[in-house]
Amino acid sequence: MNTGETLSPQSNNAEGSTPFETDQTESMNPGQVQEKLSALEQENEELNKRLLRLQADFDNYRKRSRAEKQEMVDYATIELIRSLLPVIDNLDRACAAAEDSPEGLFDGVFMIARQLKELLEKEGLQAIDCKGKPFDPQCHEAVIREESGEYPPNTVVDELQKGYKMKDRVLRPSMVKVAVDNDK
Length: 184
What we know:
Layout: H1 19-26, H2 30-100, H3 102-122, E1 125-127, E2 140-147, E3 156-161, E4 164-166, E5 169-172, E6 174-180
Parallel strand pairs: 2-6
Antiparallel strand pairs: 1-4, 3-6, 4-5
């Protein structure tokens, strides 16, 4: 081998080993080479076992995370349903009272509607305020456009169906009537 010759780790000499391996193994007898080979094979086997354990641990972690996430979603739903049970109870009472006294049904339904709205507001539901406000396509869905002397153009004149948002996310846009320019 020439001393000026540069070999990459991938290039092999005549015996099929890298220069580094050749330097170490030239001074070893065949028994030492066999011991070194056995030690490297054992180390390789241990590293493969360790890799398999790490892969299994990661798969278990992923499954556990997915299960915990689903459990959180299920628990949140359970809590919402649990808080709606009194509303259902009051609806049942109102229906039973309607058989005896139809006049009380009207008041009962209004009280239940108020109870349900308060419960949902407590959970973060907000009605979108729109009448007299500038039209916002993020919160409003214009279904009618009409001329108006009372409102400036591109202003919500009337709300046809109430819209709702939860925190900052629109759940359902308000269906609205929007004022247009009188000149059109």
